[in-house]
Design a protein that fits this description.
This protein has 244 residues and is an alpha/beta fold. It has 8 helices and 11 strands. The chain has a single domain (7-243), classed as Acetylglutamate kinase-like (Carbamate kinase, 3-Layer(aba) Sandwich). Strands 1, 2, 3, 4, 5, 6, 7, 8, 9, 10 and 11 form an 11-stranded mixed beta sheet that branches.
Amino acid sequence: MSAPYKRILLKLSGEALMGPGQYGIDTDTLARIARDVAEVRQTGTEVCMVVGAGNIFRGMSGAAAGMDRATADYMGMLGTVMNALGLQSVLEAHGMQTRVQSAIPMASVCEPYIRRRAIRHMEKGRIVIFAAGTGNPFFTTDTAAALRAVEMSCDAVVKATKVDGIYSADPKKDKNAQHHRHLTYLDVLARDLRVMDASAISLARENNIPIIVLSIEKGGNLAGVLRGEGLFTIVQEGKENVTS
């Protein structure tokens, strides 16, 4: 089966790693994600990843509780390194070669982020997991995902969440919420749909990188969506607002 995309960046929220729990990392969930990534790799698609840290610490929440915002954001970045190392361990247990690159250098546990080295790793078939966001406070891991996707010349950003796309309202609260199959970048920004922050959407728009939003909770869904199957939302220029 041929690769639907040559290279993708998979953005995983920290919450996606919790599974049924309320905190931390669920190993069964990691194993399911690893199997999904392996299935995509078997098609020939090169994969790099950015992971959040909402399952460990969220900088915005810390700042809201009275902590210095920059300090809280750095704590969140360290949480992403923990998640990246956990992902690396499980991916390698499933037979895939990986490298973790951190925007905050910590040579004892992973490589520093070096763009050309990351590209070379992917060309050799390795999965590169980018940790510590952009390395700067006040920027989210969504922005880091869009930035790394541009730097790695990815064909798409895949935002893997607990919801199977973008809806007109929260589908858990509003049973009449409509699912959007196609949206433009301006649709997302103008309607403040918040699937990713505005900086990430704008960066993707400027570089014409599609954003695919899907659920990671069902095994095999990642490869299926990349083939155009199942429920998902794609955000890109020139796609009119189409509801499912």
